[in-house]
Design a protein that fits this description.
The protein has ten helices and 18 strands. It has about 400 residues and is α+β, with helices and mostly antiparallel strands. It has three domains: about 230 residues, Jelly Rolls (Sandwich); about 40 residues, no CATH class; about 80 residues, Malonyl-Coenzyme A Acyl Carrier Protein, domain 2 (3-Layer(aba) Sandwich), CATH 3.40.366.30. Helix 5 packs across helix 7. The mean pLDDT is about 95.
């Protein structure tokens, strides 16, 4: 039996609310977050030995640490149909979507398999705490924390990602081989996105507590060197400009429903007789141009509310159970004075100036000052507790609680 099976679970600390951005972090190899963003983010890979010092310290003391989440827990989570999970086997390559019954997952001692579980920050507090370490990067860029557990030799093959990723070794060892090659063509004969030609440039064996950061489009291949190898991946989103603009325009079009002046019908009392009846009339063009000018559709601030709403939408697999929230508005207000209100792990919060967006909705416009203040605390500090003047039925804080977006 491999020694790390006997290790005690690592208990990750919650990051402080005010991160020291200009001081060196072990997590970033002695770089401060400011230095890391300037020198590495979206630019070049960074290998960090002992990114989580607790692992080396515990090993020296003869009390090795293991993953905060056991293999048994991960297998159980993979049986949940609300969790995005995938099972990948090599020799030959096969790919299966979950949920999985335990008997369909190979034993830890079987070789050449990998189980991937997405969105683990919503399934286990340890994963949520790990994510809190990376809030020196804007929330709008964060995707989720994925956990990979594998048998000996397990991996997903040489591939590349279109986004930044931090690969944290949590249990067992994994060999990472990377390349900054330009040829990123894929093998069309395989069920996975595996590179056709992979040319290794660097190779490292990562032990528990080590971390590898990779910017987009770096070819990489991770192979488990121990049974039950766990790698925790903090991934970031990178939408296309087309997607961002389309979503922003769609929400902008929806917002026009609230402008009564646009309900008026086109009128052209100044239209003259024309010999080119087939042409779109100049009077129509002139008036529409004037309306567009009044709406400021050539200004970025007109699009930003829709873009912020889009980027605050939760993942498609997110599930919120609001049925158990049986408090009246008055009881809810009283509870706020006793207990901290927090976003559900799958809730996304973004701010645009003083405006707050929660799960795709503007939750501050038209709300009381006290409610707006509470939302800003939830967005920046991820919790709120205090005295509210009065909670009404249509208070957005109470409505979000009823929907399961916020929890005590």
């Amino acid at each position: 039996m491999t020694a790390f099976y006997l290790s005690k679970p690592y208990d990750p600390p919650q990051a402080p609310q005010n991160l020291p951005l200009d001081r060196p972090w072990a997590l970033l190899g002695g770089n401060s977050p400011q230095q890391f963003m300037k020198s590495y983010w979206h630019k070049k890979p960074l290998l960090v030995r002992g990114a989580i010092p607790a692992f080396k310290l515990a090993k020296r003391q003869g009390e090795p640490l293991g993953s905060a989440i056991s293999a048994e827990e991960l297998f159980k989570i993979s049986s949940n149909d609300a969790v995005e999970s995938r099972l990948i086997k090599a020799k030959p390559w096969t790919f299966t979507d979950g949920p999985f019954k335990k008997k369909s997952i190979p034993s830890l001692n079987s070789p050449d398999w990998t189980l991937l579980l997405q969105g683990m920050e919503a399934r286990h507090p340890a994963a949520a705490k790990i994510l809190s370490w990376f809030r020196f990067i804007p929330d709008a860029r964060l995707d989720d924390l994925m956990i990979s557990i594998a048998g000996l030799g397990g991996g997903v093959g040489p591939h590349y990602d279109s986004y930044d990723v931090f690969l944290i070794q949590m249990s067992g060892r994994r060999r990472w081989r990377i390349s900054e090659q330009k040829d990123l063509s894929l093998n069309p004969d395989l069920p996975l996105k595996i590179l056709k030609r992979f040319q290794v440039e660097h190779e490292w064996d990562l032990e528990p507590g080590d971390m590898l950061y990779l910017p987009p489009h770096i070819a990489h291949d991770g192979i488990a060197l121990d049974a039950g190898c766990q790698t925790w991946s903090v991934g970031f989103r990178a939408q296309s400009y087309k997607e961002i603009l389309q979503e922003g325009l769609w929400r902008l079009a929806e917002s026009l429903e609230n402008l009564p002046e646009l309900e008026k019908r086109f009128a052209d009392p100044k239209q003259t007789a024309t010999s080119q009846a087939e042409q779109l009339p100049e009077e129509l063009i002139k008036q529409v141009a004037q309306k567009l000018n009044n709406l400021k559709l050539d200004r970025i601030e007109t699009f930003l509310p829709g873009i912020a709403a889009y980027l605050s939408e939760p993942k498609p697999q997110a599930f919120f159970d609001g049925t158990a929230r049986e408090l009246s508005p008055k009881e809810f207000g009283i509870q706020l004075t006793k207990q901290a209100l927090k976003p559900h792990p799958q809730t996304r919060l973004l701010t645009l100036g003083a405006r707050v967006y929660c799960n795709g909705e503007d939750v501050t416009t038209g709300q009381t000052g006290a409610t707006q203040k509470a939302w800003r605390a939830l967005a920046s500090k991820k919790q709120f507790q205090g005295s509210m003047v009065k909670i009404e039925e249509n208070d957005s804080l109470f409505e979000a609680f009823e929907a399961g977006w916020l929890v005590f």
